[in-house]
């Protein structure tokens, strides 16, 4: 079995930065315990490993009596940040600079009188945080059909941005649909570089392997998108969080001569390595058993 790992798999710049901030704080801070505002990233295994170190996800800041709070990569809704400041809670802000960039463009476009359209998942914390920058006056569009919500505003000037981890292809589709309905559109591509790189690498690998594994949290938006992209190219694509899930489709894996891997931006290296090692192990066992692949 040949194992092909897509370039640019695993932790992105923003997640590495956040994890380093947590690590530094853990070593230096006297302000313990440490909390993350919700799960620091959408990866249950990483969240569990932080819990083991005593760094706990917290949803309700009013329950915080002491310690420090880490604001996650997705950014924080403005009203909540105001509350944290009012309560004088010690915090470090691990909001990814690419997300902060989307906040700035939302504010700029809004200030200039555009109706701000945010392409993204309605309930995703990043999208909620972006929209909160403009007092939730933006319109969130998940799919082309959602544009119907605003077509009666024909004379509006539209400023469109994207959730940082969206698919560029889908963003282009939304922009095209907007152009069919509105005269003046200001487009800012706020999809982050890490997302585009991962998606391009995933396409490259999914096209040339027999079976594709997409590794990452089932709650991770960017991983789900990698899955959708790979699945559209290769129906033999599986989304897993850890190597343990491979057991349920092991026979299909063993029938594959080339297995591709790509991991979402919130998937740590150790999980990718465990998957690679497991694939090598089952392949070795298979060879030992002397069964021939098709
Ligand atoms: S995926 Fe992009 S926007 Fe999100 S944390 Fe990583 S670098 Fe930042």
UniProtKB/TrEMBL annotation:
GO terms (BP aspect): dimethylallyl diphosphate biosynthetic process; isopentenyl diphosphate biosynthetic process, methylerythritol 4-phosphate pathway; terpenoid biosynthetic process
HAMAP family listed in its UniProt record: IspH
Entry EC no(s): 1.17.7.4
Residues reported in the UniProt entry to bind (2E)-4-hydroxy-3-methylbut-2-enyl diphosphate: 42, 74, 124, 164, 220, 222, 266
Keyword Iron applies: yes
Keyword entries, A-Z: 4Fe-4S, Iron, Iron-sulfur, Isoprene biosynthesis, Metal-binding, Oxidoreductase
Protein family membership: Belongs to the IspH family.
Residues annotated for dimethylallyl diphosphate binding in this entry: 42, 74, 124, 220, 222, 266
Domain of life: Bacteria
Annotated gene: ispH
Pfam families: LYTB
Entry protein name: 4-hydroxy-3-methylbut-2-enyl diphosphate reductase
Record: residues binding [4Fe-4S] cluster: 12, 96, 192
Pathway linked to the protein: Isoprenoid biosynthesis; dimethylallyl diphosphate biosynthesis; dimethylallyl diphosphate from (2E)-4-hydroxy-3-methylbutenyl diphosphate: step 1/1; Isoprenoid biosynthesis; isopentenyl diphosphate biosynthesis via DXP pathway; isopentenyl diphosphate from 1-deoxy-D-xylulose 5-phosphate: step 6/6
GO terms for MF: 4 iron, 4 sulfur cluster binding; 4-hydroxy-3-methylbut-2-enyl diphosphate reductase activity; metal ion binding
Active site positions, chain numbering: 126 (proton donor)
CDD domains (UniProt xref): lytB_ispH
């Amino acid at each position: 079995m040949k194992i092909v790992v897509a370039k640019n798999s695993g932790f992105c710049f923003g997640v590495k930065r956040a994890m380093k901030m947590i690590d530094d704080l853990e070593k230096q801070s006297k302000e313990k315990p440490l909390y993350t505002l919700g799960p620091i990233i959408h990866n249950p295994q990483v969240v569990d490993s932080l819990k083991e170190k005593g760094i706990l996800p917290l949803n309700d800041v009013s329950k915080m009596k002491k310690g420090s709070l880490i604001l996650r990569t997705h950014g924080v809704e403005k009203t909540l940040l105001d509350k944290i400041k009012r309560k004088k809670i010690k915090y470090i802000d691990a909001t990814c600079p690419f997300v902060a960039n989307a906040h700035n463009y939302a504010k700029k476009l809004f200030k200039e009188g555009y109706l701000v359209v945010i392409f993204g998942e309605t309930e995703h914390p990043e999208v909620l945080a972006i929209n909160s920058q403009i007092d939730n006056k933006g319109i969130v569009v998940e799919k082309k059909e959602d544009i119907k919500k605003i077509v009666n505003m024909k004379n509006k000037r539209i400023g469109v941005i994207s959730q940082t981890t969206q698919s560029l292809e889908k963003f282009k589709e939304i922009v095209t649909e907007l152009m069919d309905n509105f005269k003046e559109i200001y487009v800012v591509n706020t999809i982050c570089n890490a997302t585009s790189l991962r998606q391009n690498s995933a396409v490259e690998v999914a096209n040339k392997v027999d079976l594709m594994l997409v590794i990452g949290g089932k709650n991770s938006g960017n991983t789900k998108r990698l899955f959708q992209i790979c699945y559209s190219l290769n129906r033999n694509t599986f989304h897993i969080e850890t190597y343990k899930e491979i057991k349920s489709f092991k026979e299909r894996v063993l029938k594959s001569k080339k297995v591709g891997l790509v991991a979402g931006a919130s998937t740590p290296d150790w999980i990718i390595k465990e998957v690679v090692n497991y694939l090598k192990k089952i392949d070795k066992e298979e060879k030992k058993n002397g069964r021939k692949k098709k």
